[in-house]
Design goal:
two-stranded antiparallel sheet; single chain; mainly alpha
């Protein structure tokens, strides 16, 4: 199973915001600079995270973004399910596109479905808080270039 960059960056934004002091505002530019990734791409992700009610966006001068949910309340499995749009590991997982002649007799589909469920079971055990237990180390890596 491979996550899209969209989900990867969504997780990074949430980790970044969780590593700040509670309520402290950040900007998309600040996150873009810290991770050295596209500001335009992050803007779309921030918009979606706002629609998911995970972050709050404050417009205008002195505005920014911050978590509006506690890090321990952001379940990773749930986030991945909301940010990924395709869990069809093989053709037969999508009944509208399935052309495999083995589908009716093949046991591979069941095994892969079981593996996918195990994948989510692991992700469901974690929250964003689990990823910032070493907050001091993360903070020093993200903000070592003189950012606040």
């Amino acid at each position: 199973m491979r996550l899209t960059m969209y989900t990867d960056y969504s997780l990074r934004v949430l980790i970044f915001l969780a590593s700040k002091q509670p309520g402290e505002l950040s900007t998309v530019q600040e996150i873009s600079d810290a991770y050295q990734i596209s500001k335009n791409h992050l803007t779309k992700i921030v918009h979606e995270l706002g629609k998911l009610q995970l972050i709050e966006t404050i417009r205008g001068r002195g505005g920014g973004i911050r978590l509006c949910v506690e890090p321990q309340d952001i379940n990773v499995g749930e986030l991945v399910r909301k940010t990924e749009d395709d869990f069809h590991l093989v053709e037969c997982f999508d009944p509208t596109k399935n052309m495999c002649v083995l589908s009716s007799a093949c046991h591979l589909k069941g095994v892969l479905h079981e593996a996918l469920q195990a994948y989510f079971a692991v992700l469901d055990r974690y929250t964003i808080a689990d990823f910032i237990r070493n907050k001091d180390e993360i903070h020093s890596l993200l903000f070592s270039s003189g950012q606040t």
